[in-house]
Design goal:
mainly alpha; 7% strand; 51% helix; elongated; 118 residues; two-stranded antiparallel ribbon; single chain
């Protein structure tokens, strides 16, 4: 229906009768389930034995990183909260010290020897 106004459809009979349409809201348990899935993903990666040549601390950091990125993508919480969980996880697990976790890298370069972070 068009009510004579070009480009604007008329309201549905339900809306015209005084009922308002509510936007689709996610179930309250969805965030919890997604957060639990992100946490379990990190735990599963953590528990997989690291490939040869990879230090356990590097493998654990990868697990935390992957879980953090998946959490940012799936959005069970705002991005800042997920990032803080990732930083806290590195410190609480002993993968990095809190100073290492919060230190900003200033210079990253690629040389013949590989990636160099100063």
């Amino acid at each position: 229906m068009n009510n004579g106004v070009k480009g604007k459809p008329s309201a549905s009979p339900e809306t015209q009768a005084g009922k308002t349409e509510t936007p689709h809201q996610e179930p309250p348990w969805r965030r919890f389930v997604v957060m639990l899935a992100v946490f379990l993903l990190g735990v599963v990666i953590w528990l997989i034995p690291p490939p040869s040549g990879v230090q356990p601390a590097a493998w654990h950091l990868l697990a935390i990183f992957v879980a953090t990125i998946v959490g940012i993508i799936t959005k069970p919480l705002p991005m800042g909260a997920i990032a803080l969980f990732g930083i806290a996880a590195t410190a609480l697990t002993g993968t990095l010290t809190i100073n290492q976790a919060l230190r900003a890298r200033k210079k990253i370069s690629v040389t013949g020897e590989g990636l160099v972070v100063e």
